[in-house]
Amino acid sequence: MLEISKLVKRYGRDEPVLKELDLTVEGSSVVSIVGASGAGKSTMLRCINRLVEPTSGSIKLNGNELVHLRGRELRRARRKIGMVFQGFNLIDRLTVMENVLAGRLGYVNLYQAITRRYPQSDIERAFTLMERVGIAHYANKRADELSGGERQRVGVVRALMQEPEILLADEPTASLDPRTSEQIMKLLQSLASELSLPVLINIHNVAQAKAYTERIVGLRHGRMIFDGAPADFGKEALDAIYGGIETAEDEITEEPGRPAQQGVAHDST
Question: Domain residues for 225?
């Protein structure tokens, strides 16, 4: 279970990006975070895995307070937080297998990491997960030879190799075409159920949030102003989150399988 309480993030003397945010995610739920540019979506995810330092507040993962961890304790905690990035964050010159096994770096010693001599059990698990997402036949192929969808699948498997207690996905479909982005969303949805893994997805496509997640959290100016089921996310919630942006309404009406309108900018915070 992820428990966020009164989370604040401020950069310098500027107005806080996150303003006493409260959020609980548990079980195998798939939760989407939506909001306009600057709403704080990406900042929130990066506070959870401490890529960004919270200014104040509490972040607990299965009862373990993350905010005050340092050094070795922080590294151990990060092993249990899988992260899927918009830009994939792969090492292009390495093979798919080598990129996937990078998810075990927090578990092996320095010699094993430098020489890439991973335990056989890690290699076997990597093949199992790659088969599950349909990329096992690319095991020895360089990462830069893959398509965007294939690269994102590598990123998903790498995160799962950490044996995470929660999976964070920061705009995982923003760099993909509409059909491939739907495939990635379906994959995240099914993996959450299969692995009993909570998944928190920062996403700018409202239609995909409604179609592939079971709960939507809407942020505006660092505050949560909607938290509910996709069926309850209508025009009123959309206007409250995006301030009545005309193109936002167009995006919410897009059906899965059709290209989304390009009106709602994604969060750069």
Answer: 1-80+198-269
